[in-house]
Automatic annotation (TrEMBL):
It comes from Pseudomonas cremoricolorata. This is Fatty acid methyltransferase. Pfam families: CMAS, DUF7884. Belongs to the CFA/CMAS family. The active site is at residue 358. One of its GO terms (molecular function) is methyltransferase activity. Gene3D superfamilies: Vaccinia Virus protein VP39 (3.40.50.150). Keywords: Lipid metabolism, Methyltransferase, S-adenosyl-L-methionine, Transferase.
Length: 394
């Protein structure tokens, strides 16, 4: 029997064409912008109640193909899910204990894909976090350099300061802080691939006397207040809700009195920190960030305050991250042939959906990005911060 679409799907009006394995095709609107090519009959039954997790998994497994712009495909698939998905589809995730071994495995899964693969679509410094667009037409290189400078300015970084970089990635921020601000930097990561390239670039730029990078779990950081400033970019998403108090206490103990702590990371829309709905959160957990847990802004600020730190500044960069991810996605789409030679086909499919899907999620406000600056007050409650933000924008 020739394939047919579920009746509910045929009644929709979307800019979507559906092609079936047997040659049948159906236009769900007058001007299709995206085509879903279904390769296996069982996928058709999923289209009756299509969660983003189901659609994404079918794409990753090669059971369906997406034709057209990947960003537009994500938007149309969300409309499809919105129209047909039953309420109450999402269930609470099964959280795991974030011990050192589990976190190391999760980090290795995500970050040890291939340095060359990441180089295809990141900026020249390989900053794998939200950029900062001072002007609408800033390039990705410019915006990531802006982000480094924005963080250093908020930390009021000075020559000779000892900066702790928690989750240092490929070392772009550490090198910037050393080169442009004269800081001494100690950076930690759990990714062996990141560390190797980060150390190579430190040596190439002659910064070995200022920058030290190590494989180290945040729970093993020195607790003697030796650091003047602490910066943590894209890190607290990997800590787990249950470990946020320990994480913040560890940063509190690592920084001196009067020192500043900057947390820059993705935050949840829901106050309870539950994942993005329609199955998108489940897809991310399964394929992209295993065991990642996004805290709500109130959750991370509560943990910061309970540790003894005082929150002094909060900034949302949600739309900055939407633009960052969109540029990453465009870069990857422009390099698909080269990317296919560096990673397995399934991995490339995951990353294509992940980058385009997250750009869409930030644009829609499903998730956010916050920079939370805190100070460790002196014993008498004083701190050395200026009375206004004017110095940030001079």
């Amino acid at each position: 029997m020739l394939g047919q679409l579920p009746p509910a799907l045929q009644r929709l009006h979307l800019p979507l064409r559906v092609k079936l394995w047997d040659g049948n095709q159906f236009d769900l609107g007058p001007d299709p912008q995206v085509t879903i090519l279904i390769k296996e009959p069982q996928v058709v039954t999923q289209l009756a109640h299509p969660s983003l997790d189901q659609l994404g998994s079918a794409f990753v497994d090669g059971k369906l193909e997406l034709e057209g712009d990947i960003g537009e495909a994500v938007r149309v698939c969300d409309q499809l899910s919105e129209a047909l998905l039953q309420p109450g589809h999402d269930t609470a995730p099964q959280r795991v204990a974030h011990d050192k071994q589990t976190d190391a495995q999760s980090i290795a899964y995500h970050y040890d894909v291939s340095n060359a693969f990441y180089q295809l679509w990141l900026d020249r410094d390989m900053a794998y976090s939200c950029a900062y667009f001072r002007e609408p037409d800033d390039t990705l290189d410019e915006a990531q350099s802006n982000k480094f400078d924005h963080l250093c300015r908020k930390l009021r970084l000075q020559a000779g300061d000892y900066l702790l970089d928690v989750g240092c990635g490929w070392g772009g921020l550490a090198r910037f802080a050393a080169r442009e601000y004269g800081a001494k930097v100690f950076g930690i990561t759990l990714s062996k691939e990141q560390l190797a390239l980060a150390r190579q670039r430190v040596d190439e730029q002659g910064l070995g006397d200022q920058v030290e990078l190590q494989i180290l779990d945040y729970r093993d950081l020195p607790q003697d207040g030796r650091f003047d400033k602490v910066v943590s970019v894209g890190m607290f998403e990997h800590v787990g809700h249950a470990n946020l108090p320990l994480y913040c206490q560890t940063l509190f103990a690592a920084v001196r009195e009067g020192g500043l702590v900057m947390n820059h990371g993705i935050t949840a829309k829901a106050v309870d920190g539950r994942p993005v709905g329609k199955g998108a959160g489940a897809f991310i957990d399964r394929y992209v960030f295993p065991n990642g847990e996004l805290p709500h802004l109130s959750m991370i600020t509560a943990a910061v305050c309970e540790s003894g730190l005082e929150v002094v500044d909060v900034e949302s960069l949600r739309l900055h991250y939407a633009r960052t991810l969109s540029l990453w996605s465009q870069n990857l789409e422009n390099q698909l042939h080269r990317a296919a030679a560096l990673v397995p086909e399934q991995t490339l499919r995951i990353w294509r959906l992940y980058l385009a899907g997250c750009a869409y999620a930030f644009t829609r406000g499903w998730i956010n990005l916050h920079q939370v600056l805190a100070v460790k007050p002196y014993a008498d409650g004083r701190h050395d911060l200026p009375w206004t933000r004017d110095d940030l924008y001079r």
